[in-house]
């Protein structure tokens, strides 16, 4: 839909998301696959949240941050996948400009928050392994809440800077976005205004929220690795490493997808390839996180067994 303004320009008020294919059979198959993935993501992360909430032994800083991460994954995926499923299977494949900007805002904010939360979790593991005697004093409940709250607020406020500039852009046509969600690059390319300031601002802010946390994670794990190697017994080293192996695996998967995204050249590769890469961080990574924590975490195993084996009172 377009509205003709006074100055012989056509102002776009909604976009068309082209999705993946115009072939119905392919779309039906994609719809079923992505729906299954979405159900797995939501159920897996909800399971982790519930396990932590109802099991008192899991009321520790590490699992408090894990609940934050799982809650983020639920919100992050729900911001993109339901609309993606709708445009795959239904017509018209449209989204309002306001809805598109809102989708990008939450996508950018939540992705940035995940970077900071992963850095906070690595700091928690650093204190637990490198300074175990001071850990209970340093990682208090109020400090954990401050770290989590600061991560959320910082990223949502930082993304707001880019959003203010995006909201000032005018979209005059065409109105087709060759993607399954409102990502930054295809969105700004549809503007009929100079977007250099917007793109520079987005690049600076995204670099801050990805590179700075990544460097903090690298420093933390360098100290952790050094401390683990100093432990004399193999059993002690294995036990120490097991407390951070799940988080380290999640970090590798998350930043691995980011690296793949940046390595794909925007000018020389097909849009289909960009969509495939986007699926890595919008669906696959959120689905892997609860699986990784479930498979590689003994505390989660014990909590799950406790819930599954619990008998009703009248059967005891």
Automatic annotation (TrEMBL):
Keywords: Cell membrane, Disulfide bond, G-protein coupled receptor, Glycoprotein, Membrane, Olfaction, Receptor, Sensory transduction, Transducer, Transmembrane, Transmembrane helix. Coiled coil: none annotated. Signal peptide: none annotated. It is a multi-pass membrane protein. Residues 44-293 form the G-protein coupled receptors family 1 profile domain. Pfam families: 7tm_4 (PF13853). InterPro entries: GPCR_Rhodpsn (IPR000276), GPCR_Rhodpsn_7TM (IPR017452), Olfact_rcpt (IPR000725), Olfactory_GPCR1 (IPR050939). CDD domains: 7tmA_OR11A-like. GO terms for cellular component: plasma membrane. Its main location: membrane. The chain crosses the membrane at residues 30-53, 65-90, 102-123, 135-161, 203-228, 240-264, 276-295. GO terms for molecular function: G protein-coupled receptor activity; olfactory receptor activity. It is found in: Cell membrane. Belongs to the G-protein coupled receptor 1 family. This is Olfactory receptor.
